[in-house]
Amino acid sequence: MTRPSTRRHFVKSALAAGGAAALPLAAQRSAAAPGVRQGAAGRKALFVYGGWPGHEPEKCRDRFVPFLEESGYDVVASDTQEPYGDADLMGGLDLIVQIWTMGTIEKPQLQGLLGAVKRGVGLAGWHGGLGDAYRTETYYEYMVGGTWAEHPGGIIDYRVNIVDHEDPVTRGLSDFDVHSEQYFMNVNPNNKVLATTTFTGEHDFWIEGSTMPIAWKKTYGRGRVFYTSLGHTADVFDIPEARTIMQRGMLWAGESLHEETPNLISPVYPSR
User: Fold this and answer.
1) Interior angle at CA 121, CA 73 and CA 112, nearest 5
2) Is residue 157 one of the residues assigned to a domain?
3) What is the pTM of this model?
4) CA dihedral 246, 248, 251, 257 (to 10 degrees)
5) Average pLDDT by consecutive 10-residue portion of the chain (272 residues)?
């Protein structure tokens, strides 16, 4: 993997950098879910994109930055990790969205990211952009709540099962099919899981019947963290349910500093 340029590159939005939304804004809108704020006037978001290019960070930028702006956010988009080390910028954020697969991160930037979320800034992301970044940084993995391990079979057809029909992020959504990578992950068993997928064993027989979280909520310090393993390429978010889950997840995370977060500990294994 060729590491992206480290030049300083802060822009107020992806469109200011010459990008174009992957879909018209009207096509990106999703039905509001009760309990997910739709207006965020005066809020500030940081969108960091880069790392391995196969996960299409620029296309994802051009898809989600306009949605955040339409939702009321003032967005700073950067194709470097330098903003994480900018204390003034990080101190004024409400939300961080990251797509940065693999790669490394300098210690001051990592500490800036961890510290911001711990103080209460929301964090949201998807697929390898959040769940397969900075593989040697265990505190980062602790914050996200899971890390990629494998995708048996590569690009395949699989089913996403909504398991929490009451949560505002998944309320009103039904199970749906995806043609993409089906992530097998090492996951914190205490995350609040919203959706899962089950492996057939066609590609690795020993995992037949294994059920894996595919979208979850958790906290890190005072910050809300939202993750979905959907989104190997940007066109996965052409699926209305996948797009809605990600949009609602970002908006939910962005409320971290503005409303009380309930206890999200939801253990798979019973306490003794």
Assistant:
1) 115
2) no
3) 0.88
4) -110
5) 37 42 41 58 94 96 97 97 98 98 96 98 98 96 97 96 97 98 96 98 95 98 98 97 98 97 92 72
Residue 221, in any domain of the structure: yes
Q: What is the CATH number of the domain that holds 115?
A: 3.40.50.880
At 29, which amino acid appears? R
Residue 244 domain boundaries: 10-147+214-253
Q: Domain count for the chain, please give it.
A: 1
φ and ψ at 176, to 5 degrees? -150, 165
What is the C-alpha separation between 61 and 55, in angstroms, rounded?
Answer: 11
Task: Find, among 11, 16, 3, the residue nearest to 89 by Cα.
Answer: 11
* Alpha-carbon distance values, 131 to 74, 101, 155, 158, 211 (Å): 25, 8, 18, 19, 18
Would you state the pLDDT for residue 5?
A: 35
In a domain, 26, yes or no: yes
Sign of the Cα torsion 252, 257, 261, 267 reads positive
Residue whose tokens read 């299409």: 56
Backbone φ and ψ for 193, nearest 5 degrees, come out as: -90, 135
How many CB atoms lie under 10 A from the CB of residue 120?
Answer: 18
Reference 256, options 67, 65, 40; nearest CA is: 40
> What is the distance between the alpha carbons of residues 180 and 183, in angstroms, rounded to a whole number?
9
Closest CA to 66 of 237, 239, 231: 237
The reply to whether 241 falls in a domain is yes
Select from 162, 149, 152, 90 the least CA-distant residue to 123. 90
7-44 b/e (C-beta count within 10 Å ≥ 16 → b):
eeeebebbbebebebbbeeeebbbebbeebbeebeebb
